[in-house]
Amino acid sequence: MRIAVLTSGGDSAGMNPAVRAVVKAGITKGCEVYVIREGYEGLVRGNTAPPRPHRKVHRNLPAERLAHFGDDSLLKNLSFGDGPALREGAGDAEEDEQESGTLKGRHIVRVGWDDVRGWMGEGGTFIGSARSAAFRTPEGRLAAAHNLIKEGIDGLVVCGGDGSLTGADRLRAEWPDLVKQLLSSNQITQDQATTYAHLKISGLVGSIDNDMALTDMTIGAPTALHRICEAIDNINSTAASHSRAFVVEVMGRHCGWLALMAGVSAGADYVFIPEQPPKSQPWEEEMCEVIRRHREVGKRKTIVIVAEGAHDRDLNPIKADKVKDVLTEVLKLDTRVTTLGHTQRGGRPVAMDRILPTLQGIDAVNALLEATPDQPSYMIGIHENKILRIPLVDAVKQTQAVAAAIEARDFATAMSLRDPEFEQ
Ligand code: F6P
User: Fold this and answer.
1) pLDDT value at position 255?
2) Which ligand 1 atom sits nearest the alpha carbon of residue 253?
3) Distance, CA of 289 to CA of 107 (rounded, Å)
């Protein structure tokens, strides 16, 4: 089997270990493994240039390992040091087209065992990620299907958030029709149409937001939480020194998991999350009452965490600056705002973001190898410490149901969809 792996959407720590696991598990199981650079954008663009001539391999590799490398191996195309091989060829697709990049015009690249050496502890995604507008169009998905068939790939692992996995599921659902279109326009042969009648897909949830339903943890969320925790630990000492208040804005898009867990793990006086806005409307007095109480019992510092998607019960955004103004004007606290931004997303994965993608990456490959045409595509999740396969459609549907409940201001449902054991 020929399998390919891509990372899509916002990067997250743990994507490199996920790609590494897919590559190594695939090779171990006898597959040819490819990486697709720049996410779906690379899949739509495909390969427009021939593989580069071989470079000298600087190291003596055991023959059985070398046997895995195709003409297109990154190892042969890029320099081969101890560090991550792809790094030297990295750059976005635009740059590749403009400059004489090492992988000019090539987005779908065969990889070998050593191409992913050293990737376990590295942040971001070396194979690049993008939010592709082209893949959202029917023409884009047709080009993507054509490129997969041209490269002889019949199994795809997508590592990304809910949008990326929805895209994967859509590609799979449309696949028979895309194959028909390619055949009728003579872009593929009848033999190819028969051989590639089904596309097998496995989804790995790579997102710092931990916003995917039916799985306990997404790849990247533990690292982002750790970053937030460290940042608030740092803020705590300066806040206490000056008896100040800090409003800390954290990421998470429409999901409050990072904010809530940061509140527990780093300690916060008040937390704003999208799924459970403050009960009173307006919310200002409710927050001030809590903080006033904490100050009265002798707290020298105040930490308020605001999820970036926070809002009140009428869905009016609650922003960090507004919270600061309230703390300053009503409680007369000397207040600062810290927006953690992309520091939450970058950097080395914590241990959990190495273990989880490794176990899940291996199962993603197993799921492709075991897939039958009548089965759904699976998302590889984790529940109560067990790696599980969950039908991708179900996970996507429930994730969208949370957003719909928030939109309908049905916060009890939003919370119980996120956590069935949550009590109002
Ligand atoms: O989905 C991951 C995430 O980091 C969100 O938490 C945040 O809202 C968004 O991506 C930021 O996106 P960008 O990096 O495109 O600004």
Assistant:
1) 96
2) 8
3) 56
Which residue's CA is minimally distant from atom 13 of ligand 1? Answer: 10
The whole-number pLDDT of residue 269 equals 98
Best residue among 7, 129, 209 to mutate for probing ligand 1's pocket (most ligand atoms within 8 Å of CB) is 209
Q: Is the ipTM of this complex over 0.95?
A: yes
The residue ranges of the chain whose pLDDT is under 70 are 52-104, 423-424
Convert the pLDDT of each residue in 22-58 to its tens digit.
999 999 999 999 999 999 999 999 998 887 665 444 3
- CB 65 within 8 Å of CB 54: no
C-alpha–C-alpha distance, residues 5 and 38, integer Å:
11
Distance 299 CA to ligand 1 centre (A): 33
CA–CA separation, 56 and 43 (whole Å): 28
* Main-chain dihedrals φ then ψ at residue 249, nearest 5 degrees: -95, 130
User: What is the per-residue pLDDT for 89?
Assistant: 36
Distance separating alpha carbons of residues 35 and 42, to the nearest angstrom = 10
Residues with Cβ within 8 Å of residue 98, at least 6 apart in sequence: none
Q: 309 to each of 24, 56, 250, 256, 326, how far by Cα in Å?
A: 38, 51, 9, 8, 19
Q: What pLDDT does residue 421 have? A: 76
pTM of the predicted model, to two decimals? 0.89
**DSSP string spanning 259-279?**
HHHHIIIII-SEEE-TTS--S
Decide whether any atom of ligand 1 lies within 6 Å of the 291 Cβ: no
Q: Is 209 a catalytic residue?
A: yes
Alpha-carbon gap, residue 239 to 245, rounded angstroms: 6
Q: How far apart are the first and last CA of the chain?
A: 49
